[in-house]
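Hi support team,

I'm filing this because I wasn't sure whether my run with nicotinamide-adenine-dinucleotide finished correctly. The job status page said complete, but I'd like someone to confirm that the output block is well-formed before I use it downstream. Pasting the exact inputs I used:
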Amino acid sequence: MDALKTVVVTGGAGAIGSRLVRRLLEHHAESVVVIDDLSSGYEWLLPVDARVRFANGDVCAIFDLRLELVSPLVFHLAAFFANQNSVDRPLSDLRTNGLGTLTTLMWAARHGVQRFVYASAGCSIAGHGIDAPIREDMPVSLALDTPYQITKTLGEFYCNYFNAQVPAVRCRFFNSYGPGEVPGPYRNVIPNFIWRALHGEPLVITGTGEETRDFIYVDDLVTGLLVAAEATGAPGEAFNLGTGIQTRVIDLAEIVIKACRSTSRIEFAPRRPWDRSIHREADISKAKSVLGFQPTVGIREGVERTVDWFRANLDRIAAVMVTRG
Ligand SMILES: NC(=O)c1ccc[n+]([C@@H]2O[C@H](COP(=O)([O-])OP(=O)(O)OC[C@H]3O[C@@H](n4cnc5c(N)ncnc54)[C@H](O)[C@@H]3O)[C@@H](O)[C@H]2O)c1
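And here is everything the job wrote out:
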């Protein structure tokens, strides 16, 4: 990737956004403006670098931030995360993921942004009951299971609506994991498993363990975002960013226990009522052919790297678990 000028990352203090910011700096971005209200992100995740400008604020009020900048490129990752959280607080979900995305697109149109990369979700769009790999051209389901899935899809509608003014690429993330994701009640399974395994607590699977997900290592996902920001054929399109590989949750639990050298047991609890997707797998052939996207980190290696990050940041993570956990 050529040297970048000013790049805006909303949600840049979050799990994925903070890794994206690091990579943008490695790619010689002149400056990276992070817009984040720290509702689920942490300033300590951001690299200490004079080129990073942190604007602590709400994307729903992005015009009020009065950011005097010209940026050709926006990565819109700020979101109310994720399914269970949206079930518990659907209005907050709609506000950030719906209104926040619409407002950010309006702001991007006003500021002449030339490419808008939107963080959509592989868990939405297609609904549940699909065992086959999910393709981008599958029909949009009208029977989505959570408010989060609805509002992530809504964001895609707004991207399409604005596309003539702000060329937008819709990236559908499958289950991201890796350094930067702090565990918590509304966070993904892998950081929560690792935290419990490091403390010898049982790993609780909500379901039978036969459920599968397509887990993608965060730095592979970030690679996908960077190529989506550059590829000529990308604007107006949607791309699955996953691996095309399913992992059973029971196997994941065992991988985590081994990586943590833990004595934790595995326990089972009922599946959450909204969680009706048994299997998830991305068909990434479109991302491969149009973007040249190819994930490289396997689940065992990715979990080991994530455990290393946990061990190096245990005090900070523990402090979060006390205040937010
Ligand atoms: N992690 C995954 O597995 C996954 C899967 C599919 C899609 N996504 C999408 O990827 C993006 C990043 O996810 P993540 O895992 O890094 O989550 P995250 O919660 O770590 O990051 C979201 C960031 O947005 C910030 N934020 C929330 N509301 C805001 C607001 N109103 N104004 C400004 N900032 C706000 C949070 O403080 C946080 O730093 C999100 O859009 C999410 O929906 C993630």
